[in-house]
């Protein structure tokens, strides 16, 4: 029973990252984003981190100015999902060093790469923090090699 | 052409835009530049442009023209290109697009690439958004990679296999050999993804499930190692070793142990160990406990273990952390059916959660509270639930009200309590009550015969306070219409009877008719109630006036009712008492006509249809009782319900049917002839129902003096149903100068021989006369 989607958005409702684990049309995706964002942003500060939307359980957690939000199916363990979200934040923090929203804005592709080393198809891929960091370093090195060779930044 | 601006440059620029329009302008300019660059087939800057496109896509702008470019990037040899290309594919392409199939070949090549990170990219993309066709084509490659010794690739291949199986379940068999030694891996990533793969296979196929049951000991061992092993910095989360893996193993054990005694027994010990040894101070420990509880409840665990699980949930309920309380309530809701008594022990904590500030917790607590209500705790629980109903948010009120009604119906300790509870709901949440509750409540009230006076009094008082809540007003008007006589006569036993005059009651009902707060349906209810009171109150003139006014109402429904009631006053006044009689006890079964209409046609129908049906009782109750005493009969039933044909005819039409056309196919007969009084029977068939015989009696008097106070009564055997309508007069003139006629309707569904006992009373020359007779000489055609 996997996650259906993972969204990162700011307090002002700006989307910073969207990862979809089920095939949806663009229109459907926009609807999900709009509805879930509205629900989550409307929650009072000390509510519990779970809510229901249609047939999905939505688990969200706020870290500084960003909301990390995911949709689960009925069978999934909500408490563990909070740990999954927390682990992702830790990974971002380790990679960027004291991560803040701006890091994710300007380096969104890296945020996606890190996510892809941690989750796949809505399931946890790697449970070791170290292993994910090592993979990212190696892949970046592979990329930088090309940059050095071409003598200019990748993009 | 100058080099396209860098990604970070673009992001910075767009963020300086102060309005949406400014942003849109910048984006359009950049998109145009990117499009020209794509047209020029510029290899160097392609990945830069696609990266920028992906950023703009995240802001919500269309980016479909970049799809093919992503494919080109994937095909490139540079790692940077591939990385962005695959990301773009995952964001912009999905299986709905035709172009996505073009990726298949690239992915196939990359799955066999020499660099594991490239292979990883390919596996990731396939595992996230591969379509069924792609999965079919590439399953072989994935299977190969599942057997590799490279743990980085193996774990990715495992999750990719999971995706393939989800898309194309038939391919599951293919991965079976590769699963043989997955669990002997030391690498946690591989272990975790293998457990996910095994879980997926077991969930989809009972054969696989049976096959993998033998893995239970191995899984138990792995779990044990995780718990017992010392600190492992790599996998540690707040003192717990790899909680993600622990939870996945627990879930797989749940699936394997379900409905299998041996497996369940093998995992008993480890479950007890996890349940007792896990540190609960942080969320992560509770996540594992939660999963453990779910597993214990699902497998065939011994009762001690189950009690342990419920107690853990009980402790969760007392936890300060809202998330944990929420999760506890959710799990208890799942287990309340199977372990009802155990959950009951935590009832008071659950009820306390109704007062929590958090909306999600309140909802769960409400659902669980309703599940816990039983005959023993009904009074206490209802008090809490009614208090909740008073103070909760509107989104809960409808569900809570329905829940209260259901619970009250099932477990009400007394009728009085039941009525009081209904009153409380109607007065506090009256406008949120569901529409179908109104007929159900009316039926409930009708069937609580001894509470009628009390009920109508309380409803009347509620109406005086507040007429804005429509369901309350509808039920109240119906009751006042039905039991208004009890209201004015001050007959209430349960509480202090109030002094109310007929005029005051009519004031209230008329007030409902004119009020802006009343819905159209409510107006219908009150008009009918007013009409019914014409037979229960003494002063009819006021009612006649009201009815005639509404004969020209703009509301078509009200107009129709008023016109028909008017007709009742004018032309069919002798039918009025019979038509507007008290309602009998209503059966809730679907076979009974009137109730069926109540359920399908919504609120308007009950009062309309019920009042228009020919009444089941044609004589006041006390006279029927006399008959019973006299005839001492077990085999006669003087008071019966009629199952009337359910076509919604207007009152006029049905009356016509009653009076019927005189089809003289059945010969008349003399039923009684004694002491100068002769009674003849003539027959007709009621057209819609061939089982109903309509008999008209003609009483004539051959003596010299009039027979005054003439009353004719009849009783039939149990298999028949009898209806006696009003006589034309109760004076039989002397010397055959005229006859008294009266109509009897007899329902004979079993087509048995018609028999009747009749009783005659009259006064002749000042002295009362009474006689009984049996009528057996009915012509065969009358009952065949």
Give the structure's gist in a few sentences.
The complex is a heterodimer of chains A (155) and B (784). Chain A has 155 residues and is of the alpha+beta class.
Describe this structure in words.
- The complex is a heterodimer of chains A (155) and B (784).
- In chain A, 48% of the residues lie in helices and 24% in strands.
- By secondary structure, chain A is of the alpha+beta class.
- In chain A, strands 2-1-5-4-3 form a five-stranded antiparallel β-sheet, with helices on both faces. In chain A, strands 6-7 form a two-stranded antiparallel ribbon.
- In chain A, a hairpin with a 2-residue loop joins strand 4 (56-63) and strand 5.
- The longest helix of chain A has 22 residues, at 129-150.
- The termini of chain A are far apart.
- Chain B contains 35 helices and ten strands.
- Helix content of chain B is 57%, strand content 9%.
- The model of chain B is unreliable at 590-664 (pLDDT under 50).
- Chain B starts with 6 loop residues before the first helix and ends in a 9-residue tail after the last strand.
- In chain B, the strands form three sheets. A five-stranded antiparallel β-sheet of chain B has the order 3-4-5-8-7, with no helix packed on it. In chain B, strands 6-9-10 form a three-stranded antiparallel β-sheet, with no helix packed on it.
- Chain B is an alpha+beta fold and 784 residues long.
